[in-house]
Structures are given as C-alpha cells and as structure tokens.
Design goal:
The structure is a homodimer of 174-residue chains. Chain A is mainly alpha-helical and 174 residues long. The first copy, chain A, has helices spanning 5-12, 15-23, 28-31, 42-55, 57-66, 80-84, 90-110, 115-118, 132-157, and strands at residues 121-124, 128-131. In chain A, helix 4 runs parallel beside helix 5 (57-66).
C-alpha cells in the first residue's frame, strides 16, 4: 500500500482514542503488566508514544522541510519514558498524548504537504537519507505496532489462565 | 496473572469501543487489507468476533453452568464470518458487535458467578475438560489478541512505505 497523507492522518488521529478505549480506567494489573524482564507495559508504551510526539516525528519533519545544511536527526531516546513518565498517572499520560497528537496533526495539516515536500530528505543517524514520506509512513506503522504490542502484552497475562486454549492462542507465547 | 471476573469484564466491555476507535470511518484500503492469502482483514476479524458472541463464549458458558449430561461444546466455525458478514458494511458489523457484547456481559453479570461456578467444567471437542474460568479467560485473551492482529495487519500495509525503518519495525515482517 502506497503512503497517502489522508489515509495516514486518518489513522494517526485515532490513536489517542484507541489507547483511551483500551486502557483508561483499567486496573494496574493490566496496565503495568509486561512480557518479562526488559519488556514494556502499556504504561511504558504510552510514555514512549508521548516522547515520540515531542521529539521524533514532527521535529524531524521540520528538519527535513527546512532543508538547511544540518539535516541529521537527533537519535531517538527509546528509554526517555522511564524518566519522563515517573510520578504520572496513566490518565495523565493519555491526556498528554491526546493533546500532543492533536497539536502535531494540526501542524501537519497547516504545512499542506505536496508530493514535492514528501520527497524531500533528511539524514537518519543509522540509515542515512530518508524521505519525509517514509518518516510519516513510519509514524503510522509505529502507532499501530504499539497498539498491537499492548494487545499482545495483555493477552500474555492470561497465558496460564486460559488452560488448554493456550494451544489456539500463539500470541501468548510469541 | 490469575483470572479475576472484575478485571476480565473490564477488558471485555472495552472491545467494541476499541474496534470502533481503530476502524470506524477508516477507508477500505485499511479495513479490507490483510497479510496475504488466507489471512484476515480487520473487516473479517470483526465478523469473527461477532460469531463468537453468538455461538461461542456465552452459549458454552451456559452449557457448563447447566451441568447436564451433554456438556460437549459445538465446534467453533472459524470461517462463519465469510458467510455471515457478506453484504454488510463495517459500520453495521461494529454496531452488531457492540449490541451482542453488551447483551452477553449483561447475562454474565446476572449469573453472579462464584468460584464454585468458575470451577465447573464442560467438554471441549479437542481439549476435553475445560473450566468456566478457562473459557472466560480465553474470551478476554481472544479479544486482545485480535486487537493485536488488527494492529499488525495495519502496520504491514506500510511495510514498503517506511523504507529503511522496516529494520526497526519487526512486526511488519512477522
């Protein structure tokens, strides 16, 4: 499927509602559960998505659109949420994510991006040249992959409780 | 994590809202997309969840609770949705799922299940004896595993569009 700005935005704008529907008001047994050592809980994942809104997608898009001499992205901190979410409730994080996502999609809409813009490139610290189109497609795929991750983390909590049905739920052993 | 009826119900009641937040109003490019031959699109998955509400979870629970001489479950038809969803819109399916799930959770609440009930057994056509507790835990794990599947199916649609970021998104190649 080719990247399409309207389809992409239509997914991106849903994610705050999806996370709220999945997690808001759920007990910490679910929201703090993870898949074992060094894996992430739904709470950690929401913090990670917030950090992306602040430092990744839109700031990198701005860097590309500016087409200045410095087009190299700051490396993304995959662990920032352990610091930044500290002391916050999940409800606060869900609000924060919703607010940031709405502001970022407003910025995106204001740019009125054309194919010419989407073809512009920045420099990824590991990959080298990447286009704005690829960056925005990754924003979408990253969102839905973390929604999938939350579903998987939750399913795994009942790995034992489902008894013999475990054989029909390969996700709990993935 | 041990099965707990309150925690389980709290997840089950969310699923119609989660699916609506993910899918309602999204273009068919997303909702009819799948992972290749003989895999399911989000549209197919919602139909499968509807069939479960009609024929699986609550009917099987009733069979267990009745403790009659016939405690063997009807085999579950994993392909019923290809027939039953035919000609329906995704919006209709989302409404239908929401209605059925609400009715089923109302039935579940009315039963006022105790540990004694949860320990009662039925006979699964493949596994043999299974408890009501295991059946209800599977209902929950099944829900969230299909939410995860929808996220994965969607992420895969941008497998090529993300360019080099594919290396950081293992889900698109799973």
């Amino acid at each position: 499927m080719d990247f399409n700005l309207i389809d992409a935005t239509n997914v991106l704008k849903r994610t705050p509602r999806v996370l709220r529907a999945m997690l808001d008001g759920l007990s910490p047994e679910w929201t703090d559960a993870n898949e074992g050592p060094d894996t992430w809980s739904p709470f950690v994942i929401v913090g990670h998505l917030i950090h992306g809104e602040r430092t990744d997608w839109i700031p990198r898009a701005q860097l590309i659109l500016a087409q200045g001499t410095a087009r190299r992205f700051e490396p993304y901190d995959r662990f920032a949420q352990f610091r930044e979410s500290h002391g916050k409730s999940l409800a606060e994080l869900l609000d924060e994510f919703e607010r940031l996502r709405a502001a970022n999609l407003a910025a995106l809409a204001e740019w009125r991006l054309t194919d010419r813009h989407l073809n512009l490139e920045g420099e990824h610290p590991a990959f080298g040249p990447v286009s704005l189109r690829q960056l925005l497609a990754t924003w979408v795929a990253h969102d839905v992959s973390h929604v999938a991750q939350i579903g998987r983390v939750m399913a795994k909590q009942y790995r034992e409780a489902v008894g013999p049905w475990r054989a029909y739920l390969p996700i709990v052993d993935r």
